[in-house]
Structures are given as C-alpha cells and as structure tokens.
Amino acid sequence: MDRRISLRERIHALYAREHRELGEEGTYRLLDQAREWDLSDTLARGGVLVFPHAGVKECGHQIAAAVHACLDSGADRVVVISVLHAFTEEMEAARMRVSRGGDPAQEDQWGIQGPGLPGPDTWRHDHALISWRHFWAAEIRRRGIRGPQVIERYPWLAGGHPERLPGIEELARLCEDAVVVSTEDPYHHGLGYGDPPEVARHPQDGGLEMARRSIEHGLQVLGAGDYWGWNQHCVVGKSDARDAGQVYRYIRGPMEGRIVDLAYSDATELYGTPAPTWVATALMEWRKA
Length: 289
Fold this sequence. Notes:
The protein is α/β, with parallel strands linked by helices. The protein contains 10 helices and 8 strands. Strands 1, 2, 3, 4, 5, 6, 7 and 8 form an 8-stranded mixed β-sheet that branches.
C-alpha cells in the first residue's frame, strides 16, 4: 500500500478513536471551554478565523471557538476554505513541482474541490474537517437550531497565483455574503517530520517558541499579500495551508493576523517514531486591515 494512503488510514482511525473517547460530555466540555473567546465580530466584519485539525483533545477547544464564532456572527452562510492534504505520491510530486516553480496549470487536480463541484473528489478522503464537523453538529444539536448553510471548499496548487485557480471567481462570490473560516496545522516538527536529532526540540524545551516565531513570520508574509513567499514559508515551516492561506487572503483582501491561542499535539504514536514528533496547533484571527 502507498505509504501516504496508509498514513491517511491511521489518521482516520485515530480521529474516530479520539471522538469516541471524548464522547458527548467531553465534546460539550471543550465547547464550553471555547467560550473563553468571542471572535464572532471578526467574522461579521469580514475577517477570517483559522483553526487547527490535529489531536482533538489538544486542540478541540480551538476548533470549537471557530464554531461558536460562526454561529454567533448572525451569518446565513459559512464558507470553510480547507487544507487538502497530499495523500498520494503523485499529489506530493505535483506539490513539489509547483514549489520549485512549475506551472500548476499542468497538474491534473489544479483547482478547487468540494461538495457539489464537478472534477476531482480527493477532498472526500481528507481528514482536515472531521473534527470541525463533529463540534459543529454537537453545538447545532445543543442549541436546537438548524444553523447556517456550510460550504466546504478545498483549493489545490495555488502556486503563488490564487487568482488563476479555476473556480476562484465562483468561490469569491460565495464568500461575499458569508463568513469565512479556514483550517491549518501551521508547524510540524521533530523526528517524524524529517528534522534531524540535533534540530528537533520538545515543545517545552524551546520547540513552541520556534513554532511561534515561524507562525508569526508566516502571518506577516501572508498579511502582506506575498503569495509566493507564503507558499515557500509553508514549505520551510511545514505548514499544510499553502493553498488555503493564499485563497482566503486573496478573497478577503488586506488583513492583519495574530495568534489567539497556541498549543501542541503529540504525533509520536501516529508516525511510530521517537519523541519529539509533534504539531503546533493554533487558533488564529485575521482582522480586516
């Protein structure tokens, strides 16, 4: 089996187990914890919230904060601009070709995927929004409401030019009368992610500060509208949002970003490697400049 597909299956199994262990009580506990922040005004004013998609026990409250913000914003429509992971060798090869300056228009899956759209449906197998859907459904049920329309979109291979992506104009129209959120795990670090032992740091041994510096640098680059710089930042910093970030910044225009909350999720079990192997999880807010 393709090692990337095998990893995808392990991730799906891990998410299913974590959601079972969390249960209804744990889910609502994290939703209640997320009330620490009220970010609904950011969305109502045309900004963007970015939530992580790593281990739900570590970052579930961050995801839940975005759920509350959407529901409290008063919007009738929510557009989720999601990461699309490269879970085949060919997708990874395409991503590498583009990061080296190749033309994304030459790649098979170039464009925007999602429910109701023709073309590739790789998005169906992605894990990025599994926990988002979990918390969304739980909070809708608890509030006893139908909730706003939710539209998921998965851009692939923006390549520094999100304006060229097939489907970008349609997506921009969908966002006009909607609130926009996105997802990103902004910093993957350690032995399981290819960092040599002399570089790898545990989160509490300088690792989280490394993550913070990397994330804040990325916020500056994307905030300036440097799409190719953002693409390359994501390569170096091992963020998975190189396409999603370019798209929401292009659609929403100039914004200023900040880290609202920073934590980490251990990934040693997932990758079967020694510690340190972990992912920085961040709740991030983009306000209109």
